[in-house]
Amino acid sequence: MIRYSPNEDQGEGNVIDALEHHHRISSIDFEGLTSHVLKRFITVMQEPLLALTVLRLQCSDELGSAIPDTFLGGSAPRLQILALEGIAFPTFPRFVLPATHLTKLQLQKIPDAGYISPEVMVTCLSVLPELEELVIGFQSSHPISIDPPPLTRVILPALTYLEFRGVCGYLEDLIARIDSPTLHSLDIWFFLDLIFDIPQLQRFIRHMDMPEPCKRVYIELYPWSASITFELPTPLHLGVKCERLDWQVSSMAQLCNGLFSLLSEVELLEVNGDPDLQVESEVESMQWLELFHPFTAVQGLYVSKKLGPLIAQALVTGEMVTGVLPSLQSLSLGGLEPSGSIQEVLMSFSAARQVSGRPVIVKRWEQDPHRDPEDDGQ
Fold this sequence. Notes:
The N and C termini lie far apart (58 Å). Helix 4 (118-125) packs across helix 5 and helix 10 (308-315) packs parallel to helix 12 (341-355). The chain has a domain at 1-114. It is an alpha/beta fold. The protein has a 15-stranded mixed beta sheet, covered by helices on one side. It has helices spanning 12-19, 35-43, 92-96, 118-125, 168-175, 199-206, 245-258, 260-263, 285-292, 308-315, 318-322, 341-355, and strands at residues 2-4, 27-33, 54-59, 65-66, 81-85, 87-88, 104-110, 133-138, 154-155, 161-166, 178-179, 185-191, 216-221, 225-230, 236-241, 268-273, 300-303, 330-333, 361-364. The chain contains twelve helices and 19 strands. The relative contact order is 0.06.
Protein backbone atom coordinates (compact mmCIF):
# COMPACT_ATOMS: atom_id res chain seq x y z
CA MET A 1 0.00 0.00 0.00
CA ILE A 2 1.57 3.30 -1.12
CA ARG A 3 0.38 6.57 0.34
CA TYR A 4 1.99 9.97 -0.14
CA SER A 5 1.29 13.70 0.21
CA PRO A 6 3.73 16.64 0.16
CA ASN A 7 3.17 17.12 3.91
CA GLU A 8 4.54 13.70 4.83
CA ASP A 9 8.16 12.97 5.75
CA GLN A 10 9.00 10.27 3.23
CA GLY A 11 10.54 11.57 0.01
CA GLU A 12 9.40 11.23 -3.57
CA GLY A 13 12.30 8.86 -4.23
CA ASN A 14 10.88 6.36 -1.74
CA VAL A 15 7.55 6.41 -3.59
CA ILE A 16 9.25 5.81 -6.94
CA ASP A 17 11.19 2.89 -5.44
CA ALA A 18 7.95 1.40 -4.07
CA LEU A 19 6.17 1.77 -7.42
CA GLU A 20 8.69 -0.58 -9.00
CA HIS A 21 7.24 -3.53 -7.02
CA HIS A 22 4.54 -4.03 -9.64
CA HIS A 23 3.22 -7.39 -8.48
CA ARG A 24 2.86 -6.32 -4.81
CA ILE A 25 0.96 -3.01 -5.06
CA SER A 26 -2.68 -3.21 -3.98
CA SER A 27 -3.39 0.45 -3.09
CA ILE A 28 -2.10 3.85 -4.26
CA ASP A 29 -3.17 7.10 -2.57
CA PHE A 30 -1.53 10.38 -3.63
CA GLU A 31 -2.91 13.63 -2.16
CA GLY A 32 -2.31 17.29 -3.01
CA LEU A 33 0.38 16.71 -5.63
CA THR A 34 1.52 19.32 -8.10
CA SER A 35 1.27 18.30 -11.74
CA HIS A 36 5.09 18.10 -11.86
CA VAL A 37 5.31 15.59 -9.00
CA LEU A 38 2.34 13.60 -10.28
CA LYS A 39 3.95 13.37 -13.69
CA ARG A 40 7.12 11.96 -12.08
CA PHE A 41 5.09 9.23 -10.40
CA ILE A 42 3.02 8.43 -13.48
CA THR A 43 6.19 8.05 -15.54
CA VAL A 44 7.06 4.92 -13.55
CA MET A 45 3.45 3.65 -13.56
CA GLN A 46 3.39 2.31 -17.10
CA GLU A 47 3.32 -1.40 -16.28
CA PRO A 48 0.10 -3.25 -15.35
CA LEU A 49 -0.52 -3.55 -11.60
CA LEU A 50 -2.52 -6.75 -11.47
CA ALA A 51 -3.03 -6.63 -7.68
CA LEU A 52 -4.20 -2.99 -7.62
CA THR A 53 -7.67 -2.54 -6.06
CA VAL A 54 -7.55 1.11 -4.86
CA LEU A 55 -6.30 4.11 -6.84
CA ARG A 56 -6.62 7.69 -5.57
CA LEU A 57 -4.84 10.55 -7.34
CA GLN A 58 -5.29 14.21 -6.42
CA CYS A 59 -3.69 17.13 -8.27
CA SER A 60 -3.64 20.51 -6.53
CA ASP A 61 -2.76 22.65 -9.58
CA GLU A 62 -5.55 24.93 -10.75
CA LEU A 63 -5.22 23.75 -14.36
CA GLY A 64 -4.98 20.12 -13.28
CA SER A 65 -2.91 17.36 -14.82
CA ALA A 66 -3.37 14.62 -17.40
CA ILE A 67 -2.92 10.84 -17.47
CA PRO A 68 -1.42 9.32 -20.65
CA ASP A 69 -2.98 6.37 -22.44
CA THR A 70 0.01 4.18 -21.42
CA PHE A 71 -0.88 4.56 -17.71
CA LEU A 72 -0.86 1.16 -15.95
CA GLY A 73 -0.58 -0.52 -19.32
CA GLY A 74 -4.03 0.74 -20.22
CA SER A 75 -6.11 -1.06 -17.58
CA ALA A 76 -6.43 -2.21 -13.98
CA PRO A 77 -8.83 -5.18 -14.08
CA ARG A 78 -9.01 -5.77 -10.30
CA LEU A 79 -9.68 -2.14 -9.43
CA GLN A 80 -12.50 -1.57 -6.92
CA ILE A 81 -12.04 2.10 -6.02
CA LEU A 82 -10.99 4.80 -8.51
CA ALA A 83 -10.82 8.42 -7.32
CA LEU A 84 -9.34 11.21 -9.45
CA GLU A 85 -9.37 14.92 -8.56
CA GLY A 86 -8.14 17.72 -10.79
CA ILE A 87 -6.93 15.21 -13.38
CA ALA A 88 -7.81 14.77 -17.05
CA PHE A 89 -7.99 11.17 -18.22
CA PRO A 90 -8.77 11.20 -21.97
CA THR A 91 -8.63 7.40 -22.28
CA PHE A 92 -10.81 6.82 -19.21
CA PRO A 93 -13.62 5.12 -21.20
CA ARG A 94 -11.20 2.49 -22.51
CA PHE A 95 -9.41 2.17 -19.16
CA VAL A 96 -12.56 1.45 -17.18
CA LEU A 97 -13.99 -1.25 -19.47
CA PRO A 98 -12.06 -4.15 -17.88
CA ALA A 99 -12.59 -2.78 -14.33
CA THR A 100 -15.97 -4.44 -13.93
CA HIS A 101 -15.55 -4.82 -10.15
CA LEU A 102 -15.50 -1.08 -9.42
CA THR A 103 -17.65 -0.22 -6.40
CA LYS A 104 -16.62 3.46 -6.06
CA LEU A 105 -15.94 5.87 -8.93
CA GLN A 106 -15.05 9.46 -8.05
CA LEU A 107 -14.14 11.93 -10.80
CA GLN A 108 -13.86 15.35 -9.13
CA LYS A 109 -12.79 18.76 -10.45
CA ILE A 110 -12.53 17.37 -13.97
CA PRO A 111 -10.49 19.86 -16.05
CA ASP A 112 -11.71 21.04 -19.44
CA ALA A 113 -9.22 18.71 -21.13
CA GLY A 114 -10.84 15.75 -19.37
CA TYR A 115 -14.47 16.44 -20.31
CA ILE A 116 -16.56 13.29 -20.76
CA SER A 117 -19.96 13.61 -22.44
CA PRO A 118 -23.06 12.20 -20.70
CA GLU A 119 -23.47 9.59 -23.44
CA VAL A 120 -19.89 8.33 -23.08
CA MET A 121 -20.16 8.42 -19.28
CA VAL A 122 -23.25 6.20 -19.34
CA THR A 123 -21.48 3.80 -21.70
CA CYS A 124 -18.72 3.49 -19.10
CA LEU A 125 -21.20 3.03 -16.25
CA SER A 126 -23.06 0.29 -18.12
CA VAL A 127 -20.16 -2.14 -17.59
CA LEU A 128 -20.01 -1.53 -13.81
CA PRO A 129 -22.79 -3.67 -12.27
CA GLU A 130 -21.21 -3.54 -8.79
CA LEU A 131 -20.90 0.27 -8.66
CA GLU A 132 -22.27 1.61 -5.35
CA GLU A 133 -20.95 5.18 -5.24
CA LEU A 134 -20.65 7.63 -8.16
CA VAL A 135 -19.16 11.14 -7.91
CA ILE A 136 -18.90 13.39 -10.98
CA GLY A 137 -17.70 16.98 -10.66
CA PHE A 138 -16.36 19.52 -13.17
CA GLN A 139 -14.07 22.50 -12.67
CA SER A 140 -16.11 24.70 -15.03
CA SER A 141 -19.35 24.68 -16.99
CA HIS A 142 -19.70 23.24 -20.48
CA PRO A 143 -22.49 24.19 -22.92
CA ILE A 144 -24.62 21.16 -23.66
CA SER A 145 -27.65 20.42 -25.82
CA ILE A 146 -29.97 17.91 -24.22
CA ASP A 147 -31.05 15.06 -26.49
CA PRO A 148 -34.53 13.49 -26.27
CA PRO A 149 -34.71 10.84 -23.50
CA PRO A 150 -33.64 7.42 -24.80
CA LEU A 151 -36.21 4.66 -25.17
CA THR A 152 -34.22 2.36 -22.90
CA ARG A 153 -32.01 3.15 -19.91
CA VAL A 154 -28.95 1.54 -18.41
CA ILE A 155 -29.69 -0.04 -15.03
CA LEU A 156 -27.18 0.46 -12.21
CA PRO A 157 -28.45 -2.20 -9.79
CA ALA A 158 -26.03 -1.53 -6.90
CA LEU A 159 -25.81 2.29 -6.95
CA THR A 160 -26.79 3.84 -3.61
CA TYR A 161 -25.04 7.25 -3.68
CA LEU A 162 -24.75 9.86 -6.44
CA GLU A 163 -22.89 13.16 -6.15
CA PHE A 164 -22.70 15.72 -8.97
CA ARG A 165 -21.08 19.13 -9.54
CA GLY A 166 -21.71 20.79 -12.89
CA VAL A 167 -24.31 22.28 -15.21
CA CYS A 168 -27.95 21.31 -14.93
CA GLY A 169 -28.15 20.17 -18.55
CA TYR A 170 -25.38 17.62 -18.10
CA LEU A 171 -27.10 15.98 -15.14
CA GLU A 172 -30.45 15.94 -16.97
CA ASP A 173 -28.89 14.20 -19.97
CA LEU A 174 -26.98 11.76 -17.73
CA ILE A 175 -29.85 10.60 -15.52
CA ALA A 176 -32.23 10.39 -18.51
CA ARG A 177 -30.10 7.44 -19.58
CA ILE A 178 -29.92 5.51 -16.30
CA ASP A 179 -32.11 3.87 -13.68
CA SER A 180 -30.87 3.10 -10.17
CA PRO A 181 -33.51 1.22 -8.14
CA THR A 182 -31.40 1.11 -4.95
CA LEU A 183 -30.34 4.78 -4.92
CA HIS A 184 -31.16 6.49 -1.61
CA SER A 185 -28.67 9.36 -1.28
CA LEU A 186 -28.23 12.32 -3.63
CA ASP A 187 -25.95 15.38 -3.37
CA ILE A 188 -26.24 17.82 -6.29
CA TRP A 189 -24.55 21.19 -6.85
CA PHE A 190 -25.32 23.14 -10.01
CA PHE A 191 -23.32 25.96 -11.52
CA LEU A 192 -25.35 29.16 -11.88
CA ASP A 193 -27.61 29.26 -14.93
CA LEU A 194 -30.53 31.39 -16.11
CA ILE A 195 -32.92 28.43 -16.39
CA PHE A 196 -33.07 25.21 -14.38
CA ASP A 197 -35.30 22.76 -16.22
CA ILE A 198 -35.22 19.47 -14.27
CA PRO A 199 -37.96 17.02 -15.37
CA GLN A 200 -35.49 14.12 -15.41
CA LEU A 201 -34.25 14.97 -11.93
CA GLN A 202 -37.81 14.91 -10.59
CA ARG A 203 -38.37 11.50 -12.20
CA PHE A 204 -35.05 10.27 -10.83
CA ILE A 205 -35.83 11.35 -7.27
CA ARG A 206 -39.33 9.89 -7.37
CA HIS A 207 -37.81 6.51 -8.18
CA MET A 208 -35.32 6.67 -5.32
CA ASP A 209 -35.54 4.16 -2.51
CA MET A 210 -37.34 6.39 0.04
CA PRO A 211 -39.46 4.71 2.74
CA GLU A 212 -41.86 7.66 3.15
CA PRO A 213 -42.63 11.14 1.75
CA CYS A 214 -40.56 14.07 2.98
CA LYS A 215 -42.29 16.20 5.61
CA ARG A 216 -39.59 18.80 6.35
CA VAL A 217 -37.37 20.85 4.06
CA TYR A 218 -34.55 23.30 4.78
CA ILE A 219 -33.55 26.13 2.43
CA GLU A 220 -30.13 27.62 3.22
CA LEU A 221 -28.79 30.88 1.74
CA TYR A 222 -25.08 31.56 2.13
CA PRO A 223 -22.78 34.29 0.74
CA TRP A 224 -21.57 31.86 -1.95
CA SER A 225 -24.43 29.43 -2.52
CA ALA A 226 -28.04 28.42 -1.95
CA SER A 227 -29.37 24.93 -1.24
CA ILE A 228 -32.41 22.88 -0.38
CA THR A 229 -32.20 19.81 1.86
CA PHE A 230 -34.91 17.20 2.27
CA GLU A 231 -35.06 15.75 5.77
CA LEU A 232 -35.04 12.03 5.12
CA PRO A 233 -33.36 9.00 6.72
CA THR A 234 -30.64 9.41 4.05
CA PRO A 235 -29.38 12.70 2.57
CA LEU A 236 -31.10 14.39 -0.36
CA HIS A 237 -29.52 17.73 -1.13
CA LEU A 238 -29.63 20.20 -4.07
CA GLY A 239 -27.67 23.43 -4.33
CA VAL A 240 -26.57 26.22 -6.68
CA LYS A 241 -23.24 28.03 -6.64
CA CYS A 242 -24.04 31.76 -6.76
CA GLU A 243 -23.52 34.87 -4.65
CA ARG A 244 -26.23 37.50 -5.19
CA LEU A 245 -29.32 37.02 -3.06
CA ASP A 246 -31.77 37.67 -5.91
CA TRP A 247 -30.04 35.01 -8.02
CA GLN A 248 -30.15 32.61 -5.10
CA VAL A 249 -33.88 33.09 -4.53
CA SER A 250 -34.61 32.81 -8.25
CA SER A 251 -32.53 29.62 -8.56
CA MET A 252 -34.16 28.02 -5.53
CA ALA A 253 -37.61 28.97 -6.84
CA GLN A 254 -36.91 27.25 -10.14
CA LEU A 255 -35.61 24.11 -8.45
CA CYS A 256 -38.51 23.95 -6.00
CA ASN A 257 -41.10 24.44 -8.72
CA GLY A 258 -39.34 21.81 -10.81
CA LEU A 259 -39.77 19.41 -7.89
CA PHE A 260 -43.39 20.42 -7.25
CA SER A 261 -44.78 16.90 -6.86
CA LEU A 262 -42.06 16.04 -4.32
CA LEU A 263 -42.77 19.10 -2.17
CA SER A 264 -46.54 18.93 -2.12
CA GLU A 265 -46.56 16.91 1.12
CA VAL A 266 -43.96 18.96 3.02
CA GLU A 267 -45.43 20.27 6.30
CA LEU A 268 -42.50 22.21 7.80
CA LEU A 269 -40.32 24.65 5.86
CA GLU A 270 -37.25 26.36 7.32
CA VAL A 271 -35.52 29.24 5.50
CA ASN A 272 -32.12 30.20 6.91
CA GLY A 273 -29.92 33.11 5.90
CA ASP A 274 -26.27 32.97 6.92
CA PRO A 275 -25.23 35.91 9.19
CA ASP A 276 -22.66 36.96 6.55
CA LEU A 277 -25.21 36.89 3.71
CA GLN A 278 -25.27 40.16 1.75
CA VAL A 279 -28.86 41.38 1.38
CA GLU A 280 -28.11 44.54 -0.61
CA SER A 281 -29.32 43.03 -3.89
CA GLU A 282 -33.03 43.66 -4.26
CA VAL A 283 -35.35 40.69 -4.12
CA GLU A 284 -38.85 41.39 -5.37
CA SER A 285 -41.80 40.05 -3.41
CA MET A 286 -42.83 37.99 -6.43
CA GLN A 287 -39.55 36.04 -6.23
CA TRP A 288 -40.34 34.95 -2.67
CA LEU A 289 -43.85 34.01 -3.75
CA GLU A 290 -42.46 31.83 -6.54
CA LEU A 291 -40.16 30.16 -4.01
CA PHE A 292 -43.05 29.34 -1.67
CA HIS A 293 -45.51 28.36 -4.41
CA PRO A 294 -44.85 24.55 -4.42
CA PHE A 295 -45.29 24.23 -0.63
CA THR A 296 -49.05 23.81 -0.65
CA ALA A 297 -49.13 21.58 2.47
CA VAL A 298 -46.73 23.59 4.67
CA GLN A 299 -48.26 24.27 8.09
CA GLY A 300 -45.20 25.79 9.78
CA LEU A 301 -42.81 28.31 8.21
CA TYR A 302 -39.60 29.22 10.07
CA VAL A 303 -37.49 32.16 8.85
CA SER A 304 -34.13 33.18 10.32
CA LYS A 305 -33.34 36.69 11.57
CA LYS A 306 -31.33 37.63 8.48
CA LEU A 307 -34.25 37.05 6.12
CA GLY A 308 -37.19 37.81 8.42
CA PRO A 309 -37.72 41.46 7.36
CA LEU A 310 -37.43 40.65 3.64
CA ILE A 311 -39.96 37.83 3.74
CA ALA A 312 -42.28 39.75 6.03
CA GLN A 313 -42.58 42.48 3.38
CA ALA A 314 -43.58 39.87 0.81
CA LEU A 315 -46.33 38.53 3.07
CA VAL A 316 -48.62 41.53 2.63
CA THR A 317 -49.30 40.89 -1.05
CA GLY A 318 -52.74 39.60 -1.87
CA GLU A 319 -51.44 36.44 -3.48
CA MET A 320 -49.55 35.50 -0.33
CA VAL A 321 -52.71 35.90 1.68
CA THR A 322 -54.95 33.89 -0.59
CA GLY A 323 -52.91 31.74 -2.95
CA VAL A 324 -49.44 30.90 -1.59
CA LEU A 325 -48.90 28.64 1.44
CA PRO A 326 -52.64 27.94 1.72
CA SER A 327 -52.17 25.48 4.62
CA LEU A 328 -49.95 27.75 6.72
CA GLN A 329 -50.92 27.84 10.39
CA SER A 330 -47.77 29.09 12.12
CA LEU A 331 -45.18 31.67 11.07
CA SER A 332 -42.00 31.97 13.16
CA LEU A 333 -39.59 34.81 12.41
CA GLY A 334 -36.13 35.33 13.84
CA GLY A 335 -35.46 38.75 15.35
CA LEU A 336 -39.12 39.70 15.59
CA GLU A 337 -39.52 42.76 17.83
CA PRO A 338 -42.62 43.62 19.94
CA SER A 339 -43.16 46.79 17.90
CA GLY A 340 -41.96 48.44 14.71
CA SER A 341 -42.70 48.48 11.01
CA ILE A 342 -42.22 44.73 10.56
CA GLN A 343 -44.66 44.05 13.40
CA GLU A 344 -47.22 46.26 11.68
CA VAL A 345 -46.74 44.38 8.41
CA LEU A 346 -47.25 41.06 10.17
CA MET A 347 -50.36 42.30 11.95
CA SER A 348 -51.77 43.29 8.57
CA PHE A 349 -50.90 39.88 7.17
CA SER A 350 -52.41 38.06 10.15
CA ALA A 351 -55.63 40.09 9.92
CA ALA A 352 -55.94 39.39 6.19
CA ARG A 353 -55.45 35.67 6.71
CA GLN A 354 -58.07 35.73 9.45
CA VAL A 355 -60.57 37.34 7.09
CA SER A 356 -59.76 34.79 4.38
CA GLY A 357 -60.58 31.94 6.77
CA ARG A 358 -56.96 30.79 7.01
CA PRO A 359 -55.69 32.15 10.35
CA VAL A 360 -51.96 32.15 11.05
CA ILE A 361 -50.19 32.47 14.41
CA VAL A 362 -47.13 34.73 14.20
CA LYS A 363 -44.37 34.32 16.77
CA ARG A 364 -40.72 35.03 17.42
CA TRP A 365 -38.25 32.27 16.54
CA GLU A 366 -35.04 31.91 18.50
CA GLN A 367 -33.59 29.65 15.88
CA ASP A 368 -30.88 27.07 16.28
CA PRO A 369 -30.00 25.30 13.01
CA HIS A 370 -29.32 22.05 14.89
CA ARG A 371 -32.53 22.03 16.88
CA ASP A 372 -36.04 20.97 15.98
CA PRO A 373 -37.93 24.23 15.28
CA GLU A 374 -41.05 22.76 16.82
CA ASP A 375 -39.24 22.80 20.17
CA ASP A 376 -38.83 26.60 20.16
CA GLY A 377 -40.90 28.66 22.53
CA GLN A 378 -43.21 31.54 21.75
